Q: What sequence folds into this?
């Protein structure tokens, strides 16, 4: 018996689209669908997500037949450190204030590269924070508190 | 002459001291970021978008954004020539002969040729826009909801057609983009949709967050996959001025490139890229010395660079007249307009003539500033190329975070960036094009609104889309594009099957 081989790239792509499609479809179903004449909030998204599931399925079926390019190396370290950087900024910009939040964001992101040394990261992040303070707060006058309540300001 | 009056209005708007300054800052910043290796024009604009919002005046802000666009494009050509690393696919063609010229010690001449070609193309296409935009808006004003729906379908299908790689994946990307665009409050019923109880997303996902995540962060992650040293071959660029012989050889390719680029740029999707490739092919074919191509032929830089720039410029035509973006950059311009409170579409020219003509005039000024500023500053850009990547991206990340937060002061926009960063990276790894997704995202709400309106106007009869002549014509066009797209795909699949059978 010939075993079914699924191409990883296309297989994952199809699966991802199906998951998104199902998510939007189920959410749409819980809303008012309305009629074609007066479409409710759920009508158009339900149609779109239905087609998306279909497209995902076609890609998944294709994956069993045609081999595509391999996925290649993944930037695990990059994902682990780059993605939390903006999240951290969002969590702390009010509490810690603008300047420390910028410093920490740059500092976390620095370590996404294997080449960065701690001292260099510190100097770089401090430089970015000072520069941002001068340009965005002093220069452009953005209404952010430079230092927040968590630090006793 | 109305055209002259309009251009005078445009130039008087664009040449006020502050607008000139914003144009200059835009061009400089655009080149600065665009010249950083591995960061293309789209990512550059996405990252600089929030800065332009800090300017209160919509005209100044859009002028600056357009400046960023030209600057970023020129920056991309610079890296293509100097280190064989095109910032994006449209300058990939420039890299072929430009890099060879640089290796032969003619980097200066190559850069100057690119600048001169771009400037000439920019000048011509600016006039083309001024000439063709008003009649097109007159047609567009006759558009009803049904026509808009059909027009957007044409735009989306064309973006699928011109995406790289798999057609079906591009369709998936458009659909996903449309759906993501619907996240937020439904305008008709006021019902919240797909926000999973997070009221901070009730106004919809932040456009800047989506663009920065999908283009900017995803690109940073890809660059981190394997960190290797870049060899910067050229540390000192000399002999900027092309010789008399160079000028003689570049003239015709620049003219042809401009013509090709202007025509193809209007196409939705990737007109500029197509134009650059077409121009290169034609130059190689008409050349008396085709064997020089790939070994540093100046025609191979002059033609594609002109075509690329002309195409980039004329892609403003559908955006300005119809409010329909034809590529991710135009999608960002639309996003910027909406954030500034301007409804893109045919009404812009009558309601905001100063804005409309000001942007057109600023295109020419931006191109002029590019050639005046960038050639002397080449030394600085070359130095930037030697800055290691691991120093650049923490800076970029910090500025991205500040920029996105500055748009709405909403911390949830930053969480969205992280989400779209990983989604964009996943799509990149799964060989999906992000451009159709962004177009879908921008058009999603517009498409739904017009679809609903059209159905109400026709009393629920869907045949309205084919009984109204303009709408029917547009749909036929969309269908034709779709058929053409699938024809070669069918052929390719046949080829694959064939390979499997013989193997």
A:
């Amino acid at each position: 018996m010939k075993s079914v081989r699924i191409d990883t790239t296309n297989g994952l792509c199809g699966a991802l689209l199906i998951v998104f499609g199902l998510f939007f479809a189920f959410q749409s179903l819980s809303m008012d669908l309305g009629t074609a004449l007066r479409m409710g909030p759920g009508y158009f998204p339900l149609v779109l997500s239905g087609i998306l599931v279909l497209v995902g399925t076609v890609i998944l079926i294709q994956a069993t037949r045609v081999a595509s390019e391999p996925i290649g190396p993944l930037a695990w370290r990059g994902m682990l450190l780059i993605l939390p950087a903006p999240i951290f900024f969002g969590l702390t910009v009010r509490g810690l204030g603008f300047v420390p939040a910028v410093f920490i964001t740059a500092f976390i992101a620095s370590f996404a590269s294997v080449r960065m040394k701690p001292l260099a990261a510190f100097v770089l992040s401090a430089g970015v924070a000072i520069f941002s303070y001068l340009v965005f707060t002093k220069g452009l006058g953005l209404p952010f508190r430079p230092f927040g309540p968590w630090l006793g300001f | 002459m109305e055209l002259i009056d309009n251009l005078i209005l445009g130039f008087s708007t664009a040449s006020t001291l502050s607008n000139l300054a914003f144009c200059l800052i835009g061009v400089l910043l655009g080149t600065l970021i665009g010249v950083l290796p591995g960061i293309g024009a789209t990512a550059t604009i996405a990252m600089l978008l929030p800065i332009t919002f800090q300017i209160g005046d919509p005209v100044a802000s859009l002028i600056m954004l357009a400046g960023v666009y030209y600057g970023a494009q020129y920056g991309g050509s610079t890296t293509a020539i100097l280190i064989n690393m095109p910032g994006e696919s449209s300058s990939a063609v420039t890299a072929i002969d430009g890099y060879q010229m640089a290796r032969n010690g003619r980097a200066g001449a190559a850069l100057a040729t690119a600048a001169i070609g771009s400037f000439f193309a920019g000048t011509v296409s600016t006039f083309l826009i001024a000439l063709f935009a008003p009649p097109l808006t007159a047609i567009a004003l006759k558009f009803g909801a049904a026509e808009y729906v059909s027009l957007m379908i044409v735009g989306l299908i064309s973006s699928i057609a011109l995406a790289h790689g798999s057609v079906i994946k591009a369709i998936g990307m458009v659909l996903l983009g449309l759906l993501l665009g619907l996240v937020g409050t439904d305008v008709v019923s006021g019902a919240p949709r797909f926000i999973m109880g997070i009221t901070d997303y009730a106004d919809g996902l932040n456009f800047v967050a989506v663009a920065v995540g999908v283009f900017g962060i995803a690109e940073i992650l890809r660059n981190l996959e394997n960190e290797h040293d870049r060899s910067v071959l050229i540390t000192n660029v000399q002999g900027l001025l092309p010789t008399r012989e160079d000028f003689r050889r570049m003239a015709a390719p620049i003219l042809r490139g401009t013509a090709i680029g202007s025509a193809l740029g209007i196409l939705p999707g990737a007109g500029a890229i197509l134009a650059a490739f077409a121009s290169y092919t034609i130059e190689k074919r008409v050349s008396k010395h085709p064997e020089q191509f790939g070994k540093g032929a100046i025609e191979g830089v002059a033609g594609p660079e002109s075509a690329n720039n002309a195409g980039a410029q004329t892609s403003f035509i559908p955006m300005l007249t119809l409010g329909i973006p034809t590529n991710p950059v135009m999608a960002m311009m639309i996003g910027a307009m909406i954030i500034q409170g301007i409804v893109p579409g045919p009404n812009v020219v009558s309601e905001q003539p100063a804005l409309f003509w000001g942007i057109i005039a600023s295109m020419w000024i931006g191109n002029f500033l590019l050639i005046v500023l960038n050639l002397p500053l080449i030394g600085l850009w070359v130095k930037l190329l030697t800055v290691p990547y691991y120093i650049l991206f923490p800076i970029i990340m910090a500025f991205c975070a500040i920029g996105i937060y500055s748009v709405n002061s909403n911390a949830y926009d930053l969480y969205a960036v992280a989400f779209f960063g990983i989604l964009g990276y996943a799509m990149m790894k799964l060989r999906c094009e992000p451009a159709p997704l962004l177009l879908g995202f921008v058009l999603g709400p517009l498409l739904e609104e017009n679809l609903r309106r059209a159905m109400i106007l026709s009393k629920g009869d869907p045949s309205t889309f084919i009984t109204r002549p303009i709408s029917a014509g547009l749909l036929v066009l969309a269908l034709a594009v779709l058929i053409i797209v699938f024809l070669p795909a069918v052929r390719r699949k046949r080829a694959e099957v064939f390979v499997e059978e013989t193997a």
User: Anything to note?
Assistant: The CA atoms of residues 230 and 288 of chain B lie 35 Å apart. Confidence is low (pLDDT under 50) at residues 494-503 of chain B.
